[in-house]
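Structure in, sequence out. Go:
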């Protein structure tokens, strides 16, 4: 090939590429939408996963843009992304105009990664059909059925902490709480004794940790697959690591076959899904939900496990981080627990735990200040005329709701860095915009496992506070630093607190 021709071709391609990217990055400016200037090639994700956590990046963007319009613009690589800035706009996306935003736009590749086809990721009619099947498994009646399993694990957890408390020992609570929730979810989802508390290296715990482990810039892979899903599927890219998928598919296959062979029934999530898989109905309910394939069952059980242990474990971690710094709030919570337990003869019954309103306020304020998912994503399914503006959000555009930024907005929550459970009294909740607190999302796609997550967190906190006092130590990082590569909000270096027996 002639060298000059080769050089001309290369230069032409570089210039064309430059002009293409430049044009892409003019998207929001051309539409009169306030935006944060991007940088090639990552757009507004330059610091993602390496020096800063996504909560810090998106909150900075929210603060730069808020007040300028109902939404602003950023870029994931070269793809334009809407950033919600107004709570009424958030309400429209989640509820009022849900028909435009019913999909999350998450990457799915069921052919190469069958566990990716779960309720959180599915779109359109498939999501609606599956949601209708799963919703009956999360009713208050079903939660009450699983409550005794949770309290049994919580009792073991309470006893496990005793040697540390007797020595006034400083412990890394993030790992301990995640082991507790791993054992709860293992029992409630699979009916399996995970033994994470007794053995930190148990296979369930090891695999669970692997799901959320990201190294280097691996975190950007998630955003790439969100921005370019068709490219990901063409390249057979997976969300889940092969070892994780193989473990869960094998475990579920063996567990389902064993239960069917021996006609075993348990009060757990897997048992309910097996009923739907075989008959399309739940026992005692004649509603035809439609049968479920094994692959669907596997994906739903997997996401129940993933969504249950890490989120609740992290919520407990942040709750005790705050309670250790606010002994007055801790004492008030403990007084409520003892008063209610006395009423129920010392038993952590379902009814007793549901009466612990101040514990719920603590959990709500923890999720306000430390939302485990710092942002929520929706995909615009058709061109959308934004009410009250001249803007049109084009079909296929990603909409991001910056939960962390909203939860720390001083115009919504005065003195947002202060930990104050009284923000969540009935009266104060009524006086706030209903979409000012959205750790679980809202509307038809609100987290289906919210009740379960709140229940196991409530039970876990109550069991710890009833017997132990939690304090800060010289190893407690105040304020903590978020771990940049973590998919969920998590303290870098763990959370070290002191336990004392009461």
């Amino acid at each position: 090939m002639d060298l000059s021709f080769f050089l001309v071709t290369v230069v032409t391609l570089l210039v064309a590429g430059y002009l293409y990217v430049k044009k892409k990055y003019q998207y929001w400016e051309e539409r009169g939408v306030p935006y944060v200037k991007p940088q090639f090639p990552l757009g507004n994700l330059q610091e993602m996963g390496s020096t800063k956590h996504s909560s810090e990046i998106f909150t900075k963007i929210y603060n730069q843009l808020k007040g300028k319009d109902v939404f602003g613009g950023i870029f994931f690589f070269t793809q334009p992304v809407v950033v919600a800035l107004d709570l009424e706009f958030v309400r429209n996306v989640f509820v009022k105009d849900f028909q435009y935003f019913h999909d999350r736009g998450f990457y799915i590749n069921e052919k190469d990664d069958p566990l990716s086809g779960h309720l959180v990721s599915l779109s359109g009619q498939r999501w609606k059909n599956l949601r209708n099947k799963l919703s009956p498994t999360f009713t208050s009646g079903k939660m009450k059925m699983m409550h005794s399993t949770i309290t049994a694990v919580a009792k073991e957890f309470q006893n496990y902490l005793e040697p540390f408390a007797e020595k006034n020992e400083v412990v890394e609570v993030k790992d301990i709480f995640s082991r507790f929730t791993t054992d709860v979810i293992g029992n409630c989802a699979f009916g399996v004794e995970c033994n994470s508390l007794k053995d930190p290296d148990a296979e369930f715990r090891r695999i669970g940790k692997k799901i959320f482990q990201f190294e280097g810039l691996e975190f950007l892979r998630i955003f790439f697959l969100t921005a370019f899903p068709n490219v990901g599927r063409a390249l057979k890219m997976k969300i889940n690591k092969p070892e994780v998928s193989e473990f869960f598919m094998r475990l579920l296959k063996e567990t389902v076959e064993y239960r069917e062979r021996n006609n075993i029934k348990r009060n757990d999530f897997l048992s309910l899904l097996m009923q739907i898989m075989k008959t399309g109905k739940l026992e005692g309910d004649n509603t035809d939900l439609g049968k479920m394939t094994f692959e669907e069952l596997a994906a739903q059980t997997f996401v129940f496990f993933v969504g249950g242990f890490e989120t609740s474990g992290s919520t407990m971690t942040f709750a005790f981080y705050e309670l250790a710094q606010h002994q007055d709030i801790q004492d008030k919570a403990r007084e409520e627990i003892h008063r209610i337990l006395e009423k129920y003869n010392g038993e952590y019954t379902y009814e007793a735990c549901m009466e612990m309103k101040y514990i719920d306020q603590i959990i709500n304020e923890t999720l306000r200040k430390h939302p485990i998912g710092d942002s929520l994503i929706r995909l615009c399914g058709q061109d959308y005329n934004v009410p009250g503006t001249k803007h049109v959000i084009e079909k296929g555009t990603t909409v991001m709701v910056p939960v962390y930024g909203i939860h720390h907005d001083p115009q919504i929550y005065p003195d947002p860095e202060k930990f104050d459970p009284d923000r969540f009294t009935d009266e104060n909740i009524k006086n706030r915009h209903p979409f000012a607190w959205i750790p679980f999302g809202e509307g038809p796609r609100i987290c289906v496992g919210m009740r379960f997550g709140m229940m196991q967190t409530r039970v876990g906190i109550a069991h710890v506070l009833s017997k132990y006092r939690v304090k800060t130590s010289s190893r407690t990082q105040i304020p903590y630093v978020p771990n940049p590569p973590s998919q969920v909000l998590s303290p870098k270096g763990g959370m070290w607190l002191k336990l004392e027996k009461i």
